[in-house]
Fold each of these.
Amino acid sequence: MSRRTKRGAVAWRGLGVSDGIVIGRVLRVQNGARQVYRATLGEDEVERETRRLRAAVRLSRRQLLAIKARAEKELGADQAYIFDAHLLMLEDRKLLDEIENFIRQERANAEWAVKVVADSLLAVYSKIKDEYLRERGSDIEDVMQRLLVALSGGERSHAHLLSEDAVIVAENLLPSAMAELDFERARAIATDAGGWTSHTAIIARGLGIPAVVGLRELHRHARTGDLIIVDATQGQVILHPTAATVEKYKATAARASRARAAAAEQERAPLFTADDKEICLRANVELPAEYEGVKKFGARGIGLYRSEFLLSSRGTIPSEDEQCRAYQRLAELTRGDGATVRLFDLGGDKIGGGANDAEQNPALGLRAIRFSLKNEDVLRTQARAIHRAAAHGRLDVVLPMISDLRDVRRAKRIIEEERARLEKEGIKTGSVRIGAMIEVPSAVLLADRIAREVDFFSLGTNDLVQYTLAVDRGNDDVADWFRSLHPSVLQSIRRTLEAAEAAQIPAVVCGEMAGTPAYAVMLIGLGATELSMTSSSIPRVRRAVAEIRYSDAREIALRCLDSDTADDVEELVRNEFSARWPRLFTPETLPAYKHKK
Ligand code: PEP
Ligand code: MG
């Protein structure tokens, strides 16, 4: 999407996936997509063609091993794991047999066979509902492009082209193309494709390089050497900016970098509102690429670890040892602050949801704790892995989508049984607290009783809004009905926090609301003292918390609780927030809440 501004400058809107502002020069990167044609081989040429394919696979493997080694050195093992998936594909006998069979049966050239087989795999991936898994289709594309280049005996490298201020502009930056780039020099990334969970986004966040994705047609319009501004904070890219715009952005970038430096100094310090109420900010984590951010942004441990992201792209559940290693890493990373591991939240719109096509109402189906209770062996394995890992640091476990105390009791019993069994086996365990996610209306209504049987609450506002308002959180057609500030949602949050307080257990709010400053202020007004969010949101929430008075936030929140509609609440928030905290909020930045999930 573009908007032409004066004197030839063109502004493009996208999704900022890694914060920051950069003014630089375009380096246009092609993914090396090749045109592939079909050739029909003579009977006697077929074997030679399969040998050509095998040679290309060997060459690609060598290239990938080199890229992986480089990525490990420059990015750390956390990021280099992406290339394991590519290597696995090149070692997948079944896949390679399929390509060879195609060559033999169709008497087709290797390029064509690679393309046909990869395209059919890609078609399967494009139908997957889960965004994270669907994005993994880019791995197939990447391996296919590498094989095609290898078949023509070529190399793919952009590294030598990078200037000091290079802004990488690509249609879709495939992971291995990224790893071939010179990270010392790449200043920012702007791509036509991609979403929050694309590899481009994950790697950019991991590296701390500003990135805007989803720019649609920027690549076609940009030329290498063009002046460009990437403003990932606003999700905007400006091509051919005017001198005045460049000056404006230089000033903004300098301010932001000063603010970041100041924030970095204070990041570990305890956080208080202006009237001295202590607020604790923790991190939500899905992937190892985010670990760096937990430290960098000063999170007080991990408030929500979405363990279902440990599943392989094929959907297989990791073994007890694999899980134990992953959880142990969390415990070590977060030291005394600890990490809360959520039991696999599978099914529904989540990972694995696509596999459950038989369900008519997946969000109301065999999801989260229900999945674990129905697949007891999965729950037992996960519980053992968590208990074992807890011997190395503080770990808690939280039960997702609790709708009934019976689920809490059954899960607790199984988790405890596994601890006792480990003890009997002489295996070291640590003490693990068990909490409940409150994200379903029935759990809100019975929050006082649930609070008596768990060690803490975790409030999942994403699902709480979905289930309270009966609005599918993933359906754009009903996005206007997804109102985080609906009075019923606010009342549910308040009720849950009160129940926790009465039972003297902690409650952490970990839905997306917690990471949005205005919502965070509202949550604090409703009584929240612990918020968990994507680490990169911590600095801006921190700034908001330090500026506000809890007593003001509380007064506004109480009035909101009494409102009739979400519109009334939003208006109240717009007026009150911008009047009381003009340095934090303006009416223009406040009203667009309803689309936040
Ligand atoms: C939530 O529902 O708010 C939550 C934190 O978990 P998820 O988004 O993974 O469902
Ligand atoms: Mg949830």
Note: Confidence is low (pLDDT under 50) at residues 593-597.
Amino acid sequence: MAEEQETKSIDQGTIELIEKAAKDGVNTAFDRAEAMKPCPIGSVGSCCKHCGMGPCRVPLPKGKEETPEEKQKRRGVCGATAETIAARNFIRMIAGGAAAHSDHGRGVAELFLEVARGGAPGYGIKDEQKLLQVALDLGVEIGERTNNEIATDIGQIVLGEYGKQEGELITLRKAPLKRQELWRKLGVAPRGIDREIVEIMHRTHIGVDQDYKSLLKQGVRAALADGWGGSLMATELQDILFGTPAPILGQANLGVLEKDEVNIIIHGHEPLLSEMIVAAAQEPEMIELAKSKGAKGINLSGMCCTANEILMRHGVPIAGNFLQQELAIVTGAVEAMVVDVQCIMQSVQTVAECYHTKIITTSPKARIPGATHIEFDEHDALKSAREIVKTAIENFPNRKGNVHIPDNKTDQIAGFSHETINYLLGGMFRASYRPLNDNIINGRIRGVAGVVGCNNARTKHNEAHITMVKELIKNDVLVITTGCNAIACAEAGLLVPEAAKKFAGKGLAEVCETVGIPPVLHMGSCVDNSRILIAATAMVKDGGLGDDISDLPVAGAAPEWMSEKAISIGQYFVASGVYTVFGVTWPTTGSKEVTDYLFKDMEEMLGGMWAFEPDPIRAAHLMIAHIDKKRKALGIDKARERVLYDMDMRRELDAV
Ligand code: SF4
Ligand code: MSK
């Protein structure tokens, strides 16, 4: 049994809890993934169910070259080709992902406006400097105006960007000039966020856009509306409201749960309510109440991206990433799992029913049958938060005694926002990316990779994440991370400065030791991938590495992706000029033309392109090869060779 479970995760505590779940008779995602194999036609994008004449399946013919006559017949009832069907499916994934991120951004903007108007007590403007910076970015007058007046204008402008019908998103201006011009030239500069998503749904309806290239271009436009629009605005406004992250010590893994305390896990993506739960859980009356129920205190931890948000700003520990959510409940030690939106398995409720855990839903957009619903009311958020914390405390005496908390937990340093990297590298008085660019130019750092994204039950939990990241840093590639990859890296001990000496190549380790940073920098949650775009733009602006993101020696990856949001993120990275490799599975292989367009033609169009490689070592080397290609184009490849040779080797070379 133990050996069988070891094929499911690289993490010891996770394996222990998969075993406990089996003993307790609890069904988890690991079991379901084994029992139910993915549909081979749907998984390659060859199934369409966009109308009542379908579903239509257009799988590739097995084993032999298809004749033109056969290909002619391989269509849906309406005549849609395999290319149209694969492209439609792909961009509907982008629409789903962009909608999720951008609706998150809308929720933040609505709260932001309420705060500015004085209608959301308990919240305030925490980062005034960022407020002023965003005001400048959006063209909002500052003068002698109060913060609330400025914030009101910002909130209105941001909300207006969702329903805008013409022109282009204001925040596109944050991209390098050359990139903006390219988007305009290609006709992919997004107009309004909602408009681009709706247009995908329209074009993919039966009988509308039948040209896969035209469909994929609209996918690019909607993904850009996500990355440079909805996600970026979510991050900016959250920073103003809750503070821009700065380096902070935290811990990660299932071992952060406490045996003798009331354990509350906050899970999902939006930090709006969880910020208040952090405050409520620290109130003396709540701690007293917990003690009166026999607990030693209240232990708050996070799961998935809500975890990343409250870790980055408060140091709240992370209990796990996507595939660990059911297992946290299997410990038998969780009084409440509080969920907001996105990445919440419906099965948390059925798992919770096997123990004493209460699942508390908080968003009107995300209900789960059987769960307790305590709706987040931003007009009295602390009241909602207190009610939630109280419900958890009162559940403590109901623990069933069948408790096992694995003892593995690791330290991590998180909080590497773009602003922090700027200060860390350049100093308070001359914040800049110059030292990073210089170290790339002199070859100590080979390049930068953004490794992000989910877990996927079709592949061993965390294995591809950690194998890829270790291979990259070993080869002197500085890694920046978000989402569930960041949590995996924390669990593997890669987010501490000491990891540089242990795992990084000589050049990268030297830089990390000098600056005092880990070789893998945690930049936040899924919407915070926008921070990576801003960091890449800052590298371009600092000079010496070309004049567009596509010139930089950088690459991106999501080795264990599963969500539609990951596809949207990948597409906006590609559209921003980044070579982006995905693992596990690829959703368009049912059409060679569509796949070739994404994997080859997009590079000509956008300077960035998609790639698919499930083997994490090979994927890391594809990224390294791309980074080296860019170094060569910039004429800095020789510098790295000089760094790699020690004095004796250089003497030998000179003698030749
Ligand atoms: Fe079939 Fe066309 Fe309907 Fe899709 S839209 S289900 S391909 S008939
Ligand atoms: S939580 S989208 S599983 S990264 Fe952002 Fe993790 Fe992927 Fe959800």
Note: The pocket of Broken Fe4S4 cluster (ligand 2) is lined by residues 269, 304-305, 321-322, 343, 453-454, 483-484, 525-526, 563, 565-566 (CB under 6 Å).
